[in-house]
Structures are given as C-alpha cells and as structure tokens.
Write a structure and sequence with these properties.
Elements (H helix, E strand, L loop, with lengths): L5 E5 L3 H13 L3 E8 L24 E5 L5 H6 L5 E4 L8 H4 L6 E5 L11 H7 L4 E8 L9 E8 L7 H24 L32 H12 L11 E4 L2 E9 L8 E5 L2 E10 L2
Parallel strand pairs: 1-2, 1-4, 2-3, 4-5
Antiparallel strand pairs: 5-6, 6-7, 8-9, 9-11, 10-11
Length: 284
C-alpha cells in the first residue's frame, strides 16, 4: 500500500499496544496516538504490568485516556485518523466514534467469529473444549463483534497453554500475520465478509454456577480446561474460582498440568486419571 495512513489504536493492554503499533508502522503507516480507558479505581482491572499507562505506552506517540465511551469520538476527531484499530478494549464504542475515520474502524477479536463473540473469548474456547485459539480482524459496527470479517486464522491450543503471558506471543503473532491482508481489503474498499448467524455464540463473563466448583469425577482434561478458563476470566466476574478440595482443604486452583511437572505439584485423581495441581491458594 503506497498511501500512508494515520492510524489511532484503541486498547487497554500494554503488550497489545506495543505489538500493533510496531506492526502498523512496519507496514508504512503512522500511529500518532493510542487511546485507552480511564481506570476505575473501584472496578476490576488488569494486572498492573499488563495495563496500558503513561509508563508502559510505546514511545513517540500520544496516550489518550477517555473518561467514558462518549468522549471517544471527540478525542479521535482531534487526530483526524484515516483508520481506527481496536483490540483489548472493555467498552462498547458508540457508532459516532467508529465513523470518525474515513476508512472506518477495525477490531482484532481473539476468536473464530461468529463463535465466541463477547468479552472473554479465550476463556470460552477452553470452557467449550475448542482445539484452537482463533483470531479475526473485522470491521466494527454498533454491536459487539458482529462486523464483517476481513481476515481470520487460528493456532492450536496446547496442553501447556496455562499462563496468558507465556502463550500470548503466539496469539499476537497470528494477529500480526493477519493484519496486512486485512489492511489490503480496507485499502481496496472491500466491506469484508458478513458473519453468518449460524454458529454464533456469546462469550460473556462467567457466573456463580456449577462451573465455579470442581468435580473430581470429571475427566482430567475437563478440570484442566476449567482451571485455565478461570485464569482467562481475569477476575472480572468477581468470583474466586475454580473452587476445589485438595488433601482435605478447600482451595482455589490457579494452575494445573496434565503431566507431572515435578517439584511440589500435588497429584489428584480425576474421573479418567491424574491431574497435577501446581498453584493453589486457600479458599478462606
């Protein structure tokens, strides 16, 4: 693409900003600013080292903090972007803000849309036993994750994908690889492929239901996925889970493995074989 665009990135996640600012610039475009939500001190939030702040933002660009979703349009207009890119942002963005850039607004959603629309698609991929992590660049509209698809791909879910900070690089790499074909379609004025309604699912925050409690009669992989899924819920449901009993003590499971990692891991028998509890904490 010979034309250079002004691209504003919208995200709340520091590694996301670093990855995609670099990727957009490598494709020959300018990123003058990154827009993030103002942190609610009383609400749930990401771990401090993952949250986009003035200390973690990439250098040589402006960092904008929106006080609410209605201020996004005004902030974007100040930068006159050709394109808005979004990923890892907690608010539903008003259509008026999405319409500011002349080329429209696009989003990176970590799922194979229309499957797992919503705020925690990675957690639901594990909860549903999916074999792959999905990646979709799509045009944004007034609803969540329903816009036309521009590019899409996937990477396998490995048994040892237990810590988002360890396996996130392969998800970022997938998004970067799919960015150029997505931008080529934007440059060509291609509206993208409409999402089918068949196969659409909603990846909403977990609730206080049976999934909170571990049933050791379930298969080991089911429990392993349950633990990993709650890790990727990021605590936004406000529930300490999954809850289990290990060696007669009520605990919250934080990390498990399907094979013996050694060390202080505790072996627990599931319905079809063993699972090793690597990290847990007292429930009380």
């Amino acid at each position: 693409m010979a034309e250079t665009w002004r691209v504003v990135l919208i995200t709340a996640i520091a590694p996301m900003a670093e990855t995609y600012v670099s990727a957009v610039r490598a494709l020959g475009h300018d990123v003058p600013a990154v827009l993030a939500p103002r942190r609610d001190p009383d609400g749930p939030h990401l771990p401090e080292h993952l949250e986009l702040t003035r200390y973690s933002a990439p250098d040589v660009l402006d960092l904008l903090f929106a006080r609410d979703k209605h201020s996004i349009e005004r902030l974007l207009r100040a930068y006159e972007p050709d394109l808005v890119m979004c990923s890892g942002f907690p608010w539903k963005i008003p259509q008026a803000a999405l319409d500011v850039p002349r080329l429209g607004s696009i989003n990176l959603h970590p799922a194979l849309l229309p499957r797992h629309r919503g705020p925690i698609p990675l957690a639901w991929a594990l909860r549903d036993g999916d074999p792959v992590w999905g990646t979709t660049w799509h045009r944004m509209d007034s609803e969540l994750d329903t816009g036309n698809i521009l590019s899409q791909g996937s990477v396998p879910i490995e048994d040892d994908d237990v810590d988002i900070e360890e396996f996130a690089p392969k998800l970022f790499a997938s998004g970067v690889a799919l960015l150029e074909p997505a931008l080529e379609r934007v440059a060509a004025g291609d509206p993208g492929d409409p999402q089918p309604e068949e196969g659409a699912t909603w990846a909403g925050h977990f609730e206080d239901d049976d999934y909170v409690r571990v049933d050791w009669t379930k298969p080991a992989r089911y429990v392993h996925n349950q633990v990993r899924a709650w890790h990727l819920e990021f605590g936004f449901a406000g529930i300490r889970a999954p809850q289990a009993e290990v060696n007669g003590e009520p605990v919250v499971l934080r990390q498990t493995r399907l094979t013996d990692p050694g060390g202080d891991a505790v072996r627990v028998e599931c319905g079809d074989g063993p699972l090793w509890v690597v990290v847990s904490e007292p429930l009380c």
